[in-house]
Amino acid sequence: MTAHYLLSLILIFSIGGCLPRQAKFSPVGAEEQLPTDQIWADWPSEWMTFRPAEYDKDANKEGTLLLLSKDGFSLQTITLTKRPVGNDFKHTQKKLTPGMLPQEAAEIVLDNVKATPQVVDLQIIENGPAIVAGAPGFKLTYTYREKSGLTRQATLYGTLDRDTLVTLSYDAVKRHYFQKDLATFEKAKDSLRWKS
């Protein structure tokens, strides 16, 4: 009788939406849009998406909403993040402030990347202005070596809009994957938009 009662409670809570969102891995287009999704893009078909669990502390600290990959997250990853301006970064003590210029925000984001323990020999290729989801923003392009010796390249777009830092980044193995999927990433970036 206790097992039947427990199963009934689980069913009631799951139907009522009281259970936290679980991590979900699915093909592009197969995932449901959540009420918390305020920004979206036309994601590349044939890619897989990963939504972190609602209670994932690292994902919440970084503001990670969605990750996408075609051949595996260790080869190439597109990441969408959204964090309130006042939230702490994982690897830097520097903080964003409301009204900050995009290039000032870019320097803080870059400082967070530089302080990431896995990043070695960071080389900045580009640090300049960009339009992101219709708002003034920034674009960072850089290469780095992982501690394992693998060289990677990344492009990161960001904007401070609605008291929120939104970033869309593409990180891939430099030798083969970065150039191969860069146009796909840029197309997704160009379609980035607020839903409201």
Radius of gyration: 18 Å
**Helix content bin:** 25-40%
- Structure annotation, total helices: 4
What is the CATH superfamily classification? Mog1/PsbP, alpha/beta/alpha sandwich
Distance between the ends:
47 Å
Number of E-state strands = 10
Which sequence of SSEs, written as H and E, runs from N to C?
Answer: HEEEHEEHEEEEHE
The CATH architecture can be given as 3-Layer(aba) Sandwich
Please describe what this structure looks like:
The chain has one domain: Protein Transport Mog1p, Chain A (3-Layer(aba) Sandwich), CATH 3.40.1000.10. It is built from 4 helices and 10 strands. The chain has helices at 2-16, 57-62, 102-114, 174-190, and strands at residues 24-27, 39-40, 48-51, 64-69, 76-84, 119-132, 135-146, 151-161, 164-173, 193-194. The strands form 2 sheets. The chain has an 8-stranded antiparallel beta sheet with strand order 1-3-4-5-9-8-7-6, sandwiched between helices. It has a two-stranded antiparallel ribbon with strand order 2-10. 26% of the residues lie in helices and 38% in strands. The termini are far apart. The model has no long low-confidence stretch (mean pLDDT 85). The chain has 196 residues and is an alpha+beta fold.
